[in-house]
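Interim report, section 4.2 (structural modelling).
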Amino acid sequence: MIGYITRRVLVSIPVLFGILLVTFVLARLIPGDPCKAILGEKATVETCERFTKLHGLDQPIYVQFGLYITRVLQGDFGNSIRFSRPVSQILVERLPMTIELAIGGLVLAILVGVPLGILSAMRHNTSVDVATMIFANVGISMPVFWLGLMLAYVFALMLKGTWLWLPPSGRLSAGLTSTPFYEAWGWTVMAGTAKAKLLEFVANHYIFNALITGDWTTFKDAVRHLILPVVALSTISMAIIARMTRSSLLDVLGRDYVRTARAKGAKEPRVVGRHALRNALLPVVTILGLQMGGLLGGAVLTETVFGLAGVGRMLFEAITARDYPIIQAFTVVIAVAYMMINLIVDVSYGFLDPRIRLE
Amino acid sequence: MVTTLKRAAEAFAEQQDEEVLLGSPTALWKTALRRLFRRKTGIVGICLVGFMMFVAVAAPVLAPYDPQEVLIGKEKVRKRAPPCIHLLGCAIEEPQHFMGVDGNVRDQLSRVIYGARVSLSIGFSTVFFAVTGGMFLGAIAAYWGGWLDNVIMRVMDVILGFPSLLLAIAIVAVLGPGLRNALLAISIVTLPAYARVMRASVLSVKELDYVAASRAIGASNTRILLVRIVPNAITPIVVLATLGIASAILDAAGLSFLGLGAQPPTPEWGTMLGSERNQVFSAPHLVFFPGLAIMITVLGFNLLGDGMRDALDPRLND
Amino acid sequence: MTKLKHITSVVGVLAAMCLAGSAGAFEGKSLAAPNCDYGGKIKSIEATDQFTVTFTMCKPDPAFLAKAAFTPFGIQPEEHLDATGGGGEILGNPIGTGPWRLDTWARGDSVIMRRFDDYWGNKPKFETLVIRWSDSGAGRLVELRAGTVDQITNLSPDDFESVQNDESLTFLPVANPNILYLAMTSTFEPFDKLEVRKAVAMGIDRQRIVDHFYPVGSEVASHFTPCSIVNGCEGDTWYDFDPEAARALLAEAGYPDGFKTKINYRDVFRGYLPEPSLVAVEFQTQLRDNLGIEAEVVVMESGEFIDESTNGRLDGFYLLGWGADYPHVTNFLDFHFSAKNPQFGNVYPEIYEVLEKASTIANEETAKPLYAQANNAIKALVPMVPIVHGASASAAGAYVGNAHFRPFGAPLFDRVDPGKDTFVYMQNAEPISLYCADETDGESLAVCQQMVEVLFEYAIDSGAVEPRLATECAANDDATVWTCTLRQGVKFHDGSDFDANDVVASWAAGIDAKNPNHKGNTGAFEYYSYLWDGLMNAE
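Predicted structure of the assembly:
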């Protein structure tokens, strides 16, 4: 087990290096320089000369890369060109939003997708099967921004004044702020330390933070703001999870031990629930890992439509603004998260399925 | 998804290797097709895809106007006018536009019809490139093994490590906006999935008896690869490719929506959505119909792919 | 009795003199360029006494007041600038004299400000001002209609009608002068031929574009500069639409059947170009139908587009425009037609020499014939084709009293009365930083100016400037020395007093490249550099 994990981690390192290199080069290949991208049509030639020198962008690429790698190894991701703030700080502020969104999306997708898949498999090849599969697939076939605006229109506009009303964008209502748990509990934290950053990172998960401090106003407000984006985002995974559950269950239902159970006279729900389901859900666990990673990175459109300050949207804006430090750091962080999630999934698969031994 | 396909491929290979030695691969396909037609989801999928392909092929006949024709000065019709259907009560003097008129005063129905051509060719060509490239890389990685396998798979890992939409955006940003570059970007981003599946399939059949037998009688590596291995590995690829067409159409629409794919005045559904996104409340018909077209097409390919997967899995009972 | 009164009064006077003396004499700071060779407009800025600042210019600058009222030239306390070094912390924590003070900047989400109770002027009627943002016009309108925000910016042109017809909303036209132009880079063929450029000038039906793609209130451009700007519309009006004459000219130039080229643009919403892709296709259609010119529509990504177009590297047509920064004709003409600007390819002394002369003349009447001459030269040489001055509009809830948009600058939210305690304004995007000396985006400037004040301020409904932190700025005869008398009794948000040294320190941090507080965000201090023709002591 330890050996397996170590080997996986070791193999990931060259891949991470490759990702960092590709991002570095790709970002600089995009035509147009950061100065004009950031200052726009009002920038003059002299201003841009000064700007480029200031940010070390006039040096040859391999020099820039070398400097960057040495700093990253010391934990310094550099400063954003656009905001002149440490990239790690921006990450601490934005990653929790995307994590909350992705987890919410995944949970909802599972809660709806798995039952749909089971239903579809059990009534396989009937109109119920077709209907559930079409329903699950419709979500995945719709452009996310369209769905988002439609949801906003219905819940924020049409249902205005009713108890069903939901806010169309943002994370909290105007004027409301979230008090970090360490402040609420009276801890003293030294600003600027790694520990402070870690605490801030945790506290920026508003829903979790509100839960542990017992702040019900903020909790309810944050949850309400997250409902529509989570619904929109979950449609993407829902279909895949439903499909996966269905085909895996069908697959298992055709196996010998299930036939044996049926032959012994067991009723169908017992067959499904006791024998088939547990085994059928194993492959679904693999999918969860892939989906989580995909949701983390692919939430760009959802974050844009609902005005959520997450990682995907910042990355897209950074590409437009040629903010190289942000592009590099965010991509690497997403990639690392993706790899870690997959590693956890594979290891837990080893625990769950006794036939698989991780060599 | 990849794991199930892998297992399906293995199971398939085990069960069918006899058939392959003795019979031809076409017999297996005939069975598969029969089973596909018996599945309701497969039928719905085939109908939808068939319908879209018909629309694409018959576009010049079906479309009432030229999709690029600007009607200012030719017809008395307002920019972004809502649909006018005479049968449903629209005045006879008004020119008929089933899906209304777009922001540049062009007939939207014609643009949506021609859009089928653009979207379907996007789907097919992207998948074609991704599949060919992926199969090639996966096959040689699995067959030759060793350091070549390692290098190719690490490169695939690097590509897969990026969030796919963002990598596609970055590639298009480098190459410049445009349909061709968007296609290339999507192909690159989706290629690793096919490479992996191909590699897994090839690995599982590589050591089987009949391959050893072929080698024993002196067949060359290429011949073995092409004649014995590839036809067996192709099954999971076909399913993946069908689903891939669906996601390629969605990805291309997404890129066009962001302004990075098809450029105006090309009638591509994603571009049409993108240019009218701010009119979703004042002119919802301009957002509804292209979105609906995307949904129907993508749904069709998704259902078809699902149906094929079921049909090709030998363990499913009817 | 009288003797006692006499003694008390003497003692009183002596005491007063002692107190005044012990308060310490005022040490005025100053900043000066070694000489005027650096090319910039400012020679020195001096705090001549506690409440007087003198600006000495290298060249006469009649637009001084119009420019100095611009947000980047806001005043922060000298001590705050020194403490933060003009960078880092100050980007997220500005200290100003304005009616609002910063409470929280919830990054990515909103900026929350509270009423400053020691404000020198009229205090706002409500307690909390919140700024939020959304980049979709439809999204902003949904929020306004849902009641989650009280005022929004940049309505989509198609929504104008529904907002005007909606009784629960107030339609707010935004009178910011702007211009859309169809540019040609004359260093590329065939745009190097004057006949070709003239043919294009006559071959575009600009009225049709305005009628179909621009909201009501937009007008076809008679000159490059909008007529609301003084001396903007002097000289002959632009060519009329005449496709036959245009075709004849094109044939004369050797292109009777037109030619193939490109039309480049970026898909970014601006008041002068609210629907870029539609207008680009419209130009393509007109060029083909009227002149036989086949122009391929090319969308470019914004950063790249700006880079390529402003450096004159685009082969073909391109669509770009300009929104006014300050209410003066130099903001339009001088930026675009100066000798240093490569965006249209060749530069023309017939235009830039006249402009250079006109920019030093203080009296508007005297300068008028020179601007007429410049405009005529622009018409004759056709570096670009001016198309339209675009109207834009915004909206607010009908319950908001005194909802407004100024033609220059952001709304003054302290004048607004929402009838409740919190007012929410939704703009296009998040501010990049709150230190506006070093920002150029409207979203940052809009937020800064609620907190940090300038010497003068743009009026609510015109381009006139009104006193703010300065009660008066008097110019000498040839506009080379401006003496500004500052307002007294003004306090900063941190309680400190406002005086002339704060003015000098704030300007110095921006305009003097060698100043220890010259750090900012990008380090570019773009508006200092471009409005005053360069930074002092820059390498």
